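Dear colleagues,

For the upcoming journal club I promised to circulate an example of a predicted protein-ligand complex. I picked one with glutamic acid because it came up in last month's discussion. The inputs are reproduced below in full, followed by the predicted structure.
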Amino acid sequence: MSLVKEVEQAPTGHADAAQQYVNEVFETVQKRNPGETEFHQAVKEVLISLIPVLARNPQYVKHAILDRLVEPDRLVSFRVPWVDDQGTVQVNRGYRVQFSNAIGPYKGGLRFHPSVNASIIKFLGFEQIFKNSLTGQPIGGGKGGSDFDPKGKTDLEIMRFCQSNMTELSKHIGPDTDVPAGDIGVGAREIGYMFGHYKRLVGAYEAGVLTGKGIGYGGSLGRKEATGYGAVYFVEQMLQNADLSFNGSRVVVSGSGNVSIYAMEKAMQLGAKVVACSDSSGYIYHEAGINLDTIKRLKEVENRRCEEYVLEHPDAIYVAGCSGIWTIPCDIALPCATQNEIDKASAELLVHNGVKAVGEGANMPSTLEAVDVFLENNVLFAPAKAANAGGVSVSALEMAQNSARLSWTMEEVDTKLQQIMSNIYNECMSASEEYGLAGNLVIGANIAGFVKVADAMIAQGV
Ligand code: GLU
């Protein structure tokens, strides 16, 4: 059943009034944010999911919680000038959106990618409110980044860009106000350059201002692995609930960044065979099973493209273009690349080829139509807000370690991560059951994430 149909048929009272309120809020969002299609998409999915909650809890409508949540506390954009290796001045645009600090300081990554614009940053920041709430940790929602393209840049160019970006960003962040981290195009190297510059600007060692730092200077063990591992822990629990498992399954994982690599690693540790992964140029299909050591070396050490994998593994096939990865039959699909990478046609193909479960490692990798295809065909579906919350969870654990000035072992962090993912799964399930939509984790995640934030907003006044 589709998301809209499920909600319409949920056993709630006052559904008409709730539906009308949601429509009004959505119209305002469209009017106020013209052309921002990704932001509209993220808001629409959440608003539809919340109709049953609003119908049962009129106080959320009375306190205009949705009107307040869809409008960020602030969105800053700024010029980022830097000098490339040829001595030419370049200009990019930087952003930070601070969406909600109802339950803790704004928290969310920075994305460096040419596609970055206000719509992308706002969709990510909006989703982060609910994701961060789901973790059960005291973190609000924010996001940022730049349209800077790190691809093909030298270390020195990256450093100069990061320093210039931080010169402006530093005016808006702090360990108790807003704590950025990584996302696409931002890893330990970029965080290191930004942290070094922040430290110089404020004249103090405020370790908790950024997460995803290097292990030697305040980073947390397990942060690098957290999003991928967390997604697999979540999906494994969802599978077990249906008497299935990663063990012996055939898996396709898109992407080959941090999220993808560690989702592949954990899936393999649980006995899965991963047959494909990708980068922004194309995908590799390796029937014998992807060799993770090769991918890690190519991507994490040598900064090379997936295409070069087939030179070392001639029985693997490289295909240019990304969306074809979803034509490969699999039991479990883990989209870990980027937003809207699975459209309706790809979702239909996956279903046609017998996919049993989909776990979103990336943010909003499935279009609304694709989500409907999965739900209508009873595919087990783990939405990003819940499934990829492991990354930001371990970021919050990094903040806790920084505040206490101590560091936990990998085992301690991993145990906490497993516990957090399990709690998120249970919360999503019980929210879906409470509203008569048992097993619909899209609705469960949105509701469970929303309620905590909404109650905190009411408690704190307008
Ligand atoms: N960028 C990641 C996300 O989408 C991590 C954010 C963080 O660690 O603050 O959740």
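Two points we might discuss: Residues 107-109, 181, 183, 211, 363, 391-392, 395 surround glutamic acid (CB under 6 Å). The radius of gyration is 21 Å.

See you all on Thursday,
B. R.
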